[in-house]
Design a protein that fits this description.
The complex is a heterodimer.
Chain A: E1 5-7, E2 10-13, E3 19-24, E4 31-37, E5 43-50, E6 53-56, E7 65-69, E8 75-79, E9 88-95, E10 105-106, E11 110-114
Parallel strand pairs in A: 2-11
Antiparallel strand pairs in A: 1-3, 3-8, 4-5, 4-9, 5-6, 7-8, 9-10, 9-11
Chain B: E1 4-7, E2 10-14, E3 19-25, E4 29-37, E5 43-48, E6 52-56, E7 59-64, E8 69-74, E9 83-91, E10 99-100, E11 104-109
Parallel strand pairs in B: 2-11
Antiparallel strand pairs in B: 1-3, 3-8, 4-5, 4-9, 6-7, 7-8, 9-10, 9-11
Classes of the chains: A mainly beta, B mainly beta.
C-alpha cells in the first residue's frame, strides 16, 4: 500500500498506565525500526526488527519498554508503567533490505503525553 | 558510537536565496540519509546518499565518504522549505538503526 502507518496518532495517558503503539510497515519491507523524538530534540534509535526477530535492542531506554513484530508485518511497542519522561513522539520506519543498507521510510508518528 | 554533527544549527534566509547545510560524521557509514521534518513533524526523505552526488529539483546532496562529510544544497529557497533538516547515518560496524544529528533549523522568510 502507501507509506508506513502508525496508530494512534495521539495518546494521552496517566502516569503508571501501560500503553501500546502500533506500526504498519510498507508491504514487503523486511526491516522495521522504532525511534523516539523528545520535544525539541533529535531522534533516538530504540529497536530494530529483521523479520520478526530483534537482533538489536540496544536503544530501549529501560525494561519497561518492549516490542514485538508479527512476521514481516505489524509491530507493537509497549511501554509499561509510563513515566512523564516517556512523553515524546514515537516514530516507526521500515526498509526493504536489512543491515541498514537501504532507505528507511518513516511513518507520521504517535505523540504520547504522560500526565 | 558514531557521532553526527550538523551545521549551522539555525539558518534564516530570504526567499530565493541558496543555502548549504553540512553533516560531519566520525566513522565510516553504510547509510546516510537527509530528511526534512515539516512543521507537522513528518520526516520526509530527501536523499539516500552514503557516497556520491544526487540531485532532485532544487535540492542536491554530496557525500565524501573518505572525508566523512555530506552537504545538502538548497537553491532558490521557498517558504515551504522551512523546517528542520536532519542528517542520519548507519555506521559501518555498528547497529542498524540510524544515528541522527541534531538538525539544522531553516527559516525562509518571504
Amino acid at each position: 500500500g502507501a507509506g508506513v502507518s502508525q496508530s494512534p496518532s495521539n495518546k494521552v495517558t496517566e502516569k503508571g498506565k501501560d500503553v501500546e503503539l502500533r506500526c504498519d510497515p510498507i508491504s514487503g519491507h523486511t526491516a522495521l525500526y522504532w525511534y523516539r523524538q523528545r520535544l525539541g530534540q533529535g531522534l533516538e534509535f530504540l529497536i530494530y526488527f529483521q523479520g520478526n526477530s530483534a537482533p538489536d535492542k540496544s536503544g530501549l531506554p529501560s525494561d519497561r519498554f518492549s516490542a514485538e513484530r508479527t512476521g514481516e508485518s505489524v509491530s507493537t511497542l509497549t511501554i509499561q508503567r509510563t513515566q512523564q519522561e516517556d512523553s515524546a513522539v514515537y516514530l516507526c520506519a521500515s526498509s526493504f533490505r536489512t543491515s541498514g543498507l537501504d532507505t528507511q521510510y518513516f511513518g507520521p508518528g504517535t505523540r504520547l503525553t504522560v500526565l | 558510537g558514531i557521532q553526527v554533527e550538523q551545521s549551522p544549527p539555525d539558518l534564516i534566509l530570504q526567499e530565493g536565496a541558496n543555502s548549504t547545510l553540512r553533516c560531519n560524521f566520525s566513522d565510516s557509514v553504510n547509510n546516510l540519509q537527509w530528511f526534512h521534518q515539516n512543521p507537522w513533524g513528518q520526516l520526509i526523505n530527501l536523499f539516500y546518499i552514503p557516497s556520491g552526488t544526487k540531485q532532485n529539483g532544487r535540492l542536491s546532496a554530496t557525500t565524501v565518504a573518505t572525508e566523512r562529510y555530506s552537504l545538502l544544497y538548497i537553491s532558490s529557497s521557498q517558504t515551504t522549505d522551512s523546517g528542520v533538516y536532519f542528517c542520519a547515518v548507519v555506521s559501518g560496524g555498528g547497529a542498524d538503526g540510524l544515528t541522527f544529528g541534531k538538525g539544522t533549523h531553516l527559516i525562509i522568510q518571504p
